Amino acid sequence: MSEVLVEECRRRALALLRANLGPGGMRAATPNGRARERRYDAVFGRDASICALGMAVSGDPGLRRAAANGLATLAARQAENGQIPKLVEAPGARGDFWYLGCIDATLWWLLAVDFLGLRRRYARQAVKALAWLRCQEHPRWRLLQQNEASDWADIMPRTGFVLYTNALWVAVQQRYAPHAAAATRTAVNALLYPADRTPLADRRARLLAEEPRRRAGLRDLYVSYLNLAHFGDEGDVVGNLLAVLYGVADRRRARRVLAALAREHVAEPYPVRAVCRPIDEESPQWRPYLARHRQNFPWQYHNGGIWPFAGGLYVAALAHAGQAAAARRALVALARANALDGWAFNEWLYGLTGVPRGMRGQSWNAAGFLLAHRAVARTAAGTRSRPRRAGRAAGERRAGPW
Question: Which fold has domain 2-380?
Answer without folding.
Answer: Glycosyltransferase (1.50.10)
